[in-house]
Amino acid sequence: MGEQIPTGGKKAAKATEGDVKKKATAKRPAKPPEPAKPPKPAKPPKDESRTALVRRARRINRELAEVYPYAHPELDFENPFQLVVATVLSAQTTDLRVNQTTPALFAKYPTPEDLAAANPEEVEEILRPTGFFRAKTKSVMGLSKALAEDFGGEVPGRLEDLVKLPGVGRKTAFVVLGNAFGRPGITVDTHFQRLVRRWQWTDATDPDKIEAAVGALFPKSEWTMLSHHVIFHGRRICHARKPACGACPIAPLCPAYGEGETDPEKAKKLLKYEKGGFPGQRLKPPQAYLDAGGKPAPPLGAG
Predict the structure, then answer these.
(1) Would residue 43 show up in a list of annotated catalytic residues for this protein?
(2) Which of 28, 87, 126, 300 is the most buried (most CB within 10 A)?
């Protein structure tokens, strides 16, 4: 005879099967969270009207103002003279490198008169880390001499006077006017040029034409802070070679969305300065920047 099935065996077998299923279910790993979806790309503004362009441009600036409420000039300075010299030195190098170099320069030559009377070879040695140090030495000593002889040792607060100084063009002049004298100006540096063309605010390539085209989209009172917002964004997120499109707060407004990395996680790894946890450009940044989590840059030779 075969084995007799104990009473309730079928039920027991079913219960056992149920237990196995429950255990198998319990052991299943939790379903991983769905990855963040990349921003929805903007439609290129085909045949965009002038009114629509103005609205889009101003909305971009408002969005950037919320992201960078602490935007500021990223050159360290304590007075107009230091700012005009630092801005001239920033050509073909980073603001960070200038900020790491100017403390020694201004400690030794605190006034235009001091720098104008300096030994050029000693100035060259201090400015060597900024690149093109011979030409820059000639410019900053020349503008210092002009300030001492023509303006009583004071930096003038008018555009037409500033652009007469050696090494000072419209870009440098507007940096000084906007940040040392509180007079509105648009700073058309490489970041500004790149971004406003990506956003199709203008297709101009000449800095003066870009300045005029963008200036016409905004009230004059917004020009200086607009410059800071755009430059901050260009340095931190909308980079020249690998823009972090997937981490961009204005992606839905950008006709160039998709030129860079659109995956949010990969895009985060491209972020620079405070957005990526790295130090900013200034050794002595404004308190608002520090309060927002920004980190001061290390001095020259540190680390």
Answers:
(1) no
(2) 87
